[in-house]
Design brief:
The protein is mostly helical. It contains eleven helices and five strands. 43% of the residues lie in helices and 6% in strands.
């Protein structure tokens, strides 16, 4: 049966509504008695294979895949819980999970020109994107990268700086941190990454009267303006302070792989 073209907008709306509900539904509860883990293995990999420009040496990481898998196995066996893990320990864990599994996804498909070229089936927007592939399993609970970012990090920690900590393996994304997040330093680390990203002229072009900023500040604007204006948030980290009546524009986003030459 061929559908009437007049039904296409309605079907699209219903599909998008379903996907929105799926993406932002509550994260599943996992019964775990784990204790906080050390992220030294991942920290060593990042220090070894992330350049000073914040690019990833995927060839080097590929050669060290056994070490990365050892870290992923440690992560997979220790799901955070509120009884034993502080909020900062959980925040550090989930950001490391996001970055480590993103690296693993790239390595599983390397060489690849862009993370957006990776899918689990036909290229259907909002369905088979790389962020929808459920390849993460932690204490028998499966996740995709969208689950980790939206259902856990954004929902439970309510910290807009998280957007500077998680890396989407793309040129326009905030740089991949050359270190793993830790319970003791996570807030200091996020402030450092926010300062680096906002003042990077390749990512944001800021003057007093005009700011050409990353689309991250458009896509997730609600996260940044819960307690203040967007300009006020930017001025917390920007070396050049922006006037409240400054013109705001958003730069094109480069989804090319953040691969070190």
């Amino acid at each position: 049966m061929q559908l009437s073209k007049s039904l296409y907008p309605l079907i699209s709306l219903l599909l998008l509504s379903f996907l929105f509900i799926q993406c932002f539904s509550s994260a599943p509860k996992v019964s775990s008695n784990s204790q906080p883990i050390t992220h030294e293995i991942f920290d060593g990999l990042l220090k070894k294979h992330v350049t000073k420009e914040g690019l990833a040496n995927y060839k080097g990481l590929q050669a060290d895949r056994e070490t990365l898998d050892r870290y992923l196995n440690l992560v997979a066996a220790n799901h955070p819980n509120d009884a034993n893990w502080s909020k900062n320990a959980q925040k550090a864990y989930w950001m490391n999970v996001y970055n480590a599994y993103t690296i693993a996804l790239i390595l599983d498909n390397y060489p690849v020109a862009s993370i957006k070229d990776i899918s689990s089936g036909p290229n259907i927007p909002f369905v088979n994107t790389p962020w929808d592939i459920q390849f993460i399993e932690i204490e028998k609970q499966k996740y995709d990268l969208n689950n980790v970012e939206h259902n856990i990090l954004r929902k439970y920690f309510d910290d807009p700086r998280i957007h500077f900590g998680i890396n989407c393996a793309s040129i326009s994304c905030p740089n991949l941190a050359p270190f793993a997040f830790t319970e003791a330093k996570v807030n200091e680390q996020l402030d450092q990454l926010a300062t680096t990203f906002i003042n990077d002229p390749q990512k944001n072009k800021i003057t007093t009267d005009k700011a050409e900023i990353s689309k991250i500040f458009s896509w997730f604007k609600g996260d940044f303006v819960k307690k203040e204006s967007l300009i006020s948030f930017l001025n917390r980290y920007a070396a050049t302070k922006i006037n409240e009546d400054a013109t705001i524009e958003h730069l094109d986003y480069d989804w090319g792989l953040n691969d070190a030459p």
